[in-house]
Design a protein that fits this description.
247 residues; alpha+beta; 5 strands; 53% helix
């Protein structure tokens, strides 16, 4: 039996024993896509007709670690909208690429088709307040990189810059962004030279050499009007109040 078949068998066992009254589900992750190793986890989106609230839980079934996202159609809709707004289609990707399981595969197929269309259409345009907030964050970190910096400090700043710069490079080109290991993959999908320049800049920064990273960051900011610092202003929520802790 292949690792895929073993993983699917374990997934069906989990659904039967832990989520018996579910409507449909999506089994996703590297193993399900035929790319994983035995240590890879299985992502499982389980959808009920109704739940009081959605939740996420992790556990091990047999030899496989599971990361499970439990929803009904309303909570799943909320997380779809949240993914779209952030530009990280995490659960959308699980649904779009997942294997449909359960007693109502037609309902699962409708969600899979919807998720696929979202991925195809791309993220909302990066503009206005969202663009300025991202540019401000990157500009602030870029300013910290300049000057005489000890290598440990340069590495710390570069580590903070990794995610927002990737977001600017991807969302700014109308492509979905991601986190962690997905960033190099997504950049390669855009252009190999872009991914290589990104990887090389951070590799040099890890040794305390920040020029390549500063140059790359400037080029990306210049695609959107240049660095942004002066004029940044963001209002706190009206709900950001508590009874005074000090009289």
């Amino acid at each position: 039996m292949s690792i895929f078949e073993t993983a699917m068998q374990a997934t069906r066992s989990v659904l039967a024993s832990r989520f018996a009254s579910y409507s449909f589900a999506f089994a996703s992750g590297a193993i399900i896509r035929g790319e994983g190793r035995k240590s890879s986890d299985i992502d499982l989106v389980v959808v009920f007709d109704h739940r009081e609230t959605g939740w996420r839980e992790t556990f091990i079934e047999g030899e496989f670690p599971f990361e499970v996202f439990v929803h009904d159609r309303e909570t799943l809709s909320w997380f779809f909208e949240s993914d779209i707004a952030r530009g990280y289609p995490v659960i959308i990707h699980m649904v779009a690429t997942g294997q449909i399981l359960g007693p109502n595969p037609d309902k699962g197929q409708a969600w899979k088709d919807y998720a696929t269309s979202i991925l195809h259409n791309g993220p909302p345009k990066l503009e206005d307040e969202k663009l300025n907030a991202l540019k401000y964050q990157i500009t602030d970190l870029l300013d910290d990189l300049y000057g005489e910096r000890a290598a440990p400090e340069a590495r710390a700043i570069a580590a903070q810059l990794y995610q927002p710069l990737a977001d600017l490079m991807l969302l700014g080109r109308g492509k979905w962004s991601g986190r962690s290991k997905w960033i190099p993959r997504l950049l390669r999908d855009v252009a190999l030279d872009l991914a290589d320049s990104f990887d090389d800049a951070f590799r040099q920064a890890s040794a305390g050499e920040v020029k390549a990273l500063c140059d790359l960051t400037h080029r990306e900011l210049d695609r959107h009007g240049g660095p942004f610092f002066a004029g940044d202003k963001r209002m706190a929520s009206q709900q950001a109040r508590r009874k005074s802790l000090v009289s």
